[in-house]
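Hi all, long-time lurker, first post. I run a small reading group and we've been trying to get comfortable going from sequence to structure in the token notation. Rather than ask abstract questions, I figured I'd post a concrete chain and ask someone more experienced to write out its structure so we can walk through it together at our next meeting. Sequence below, copied exactly:
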Amino acid sequence: MDNLILEGKVVQLLAPQNGESSRGAWKKQDFVIETSENYPKKISIVGFQDMADKVAELKEGDDVKVAINIESREYNSRWYTDVKAWKIDKVNSGSSPAASAPPAGMDDVTGVSFTSEDSDDLPF
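-- Answer (accepted) --
Happy to help. Here is the structure in token form:
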């Protein structure tokens, strides 16, 4: 199970948690993403230590790409599974005006005008 990557929109940020263990201080923060497949799925992902800081930078509605590890462990004869983030990248949704605008000067180079009166000249 190498290179498991999930892409989706952040739909919920849970409260950060921290504490002390025999190995020292720890912190974590869970977040939920919704995938953009035909049948979207909501997946809870945990960020531990440094990844908790990355999760804290996210906002609900952010599009993200998350590299994950899936790990299960047994405790008192019950199994628990964690989906742990080891890399989180925000994905540019392309909604910025600069992303949709043509490069500077391109409208002068093409000489094409897209006005409503030009639509009558279409060959079909």
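A couple of things your group might point at:
Residues 116 and 122 are 11 Å apart (CA to CA).
The longest helix spans residues 50-56.
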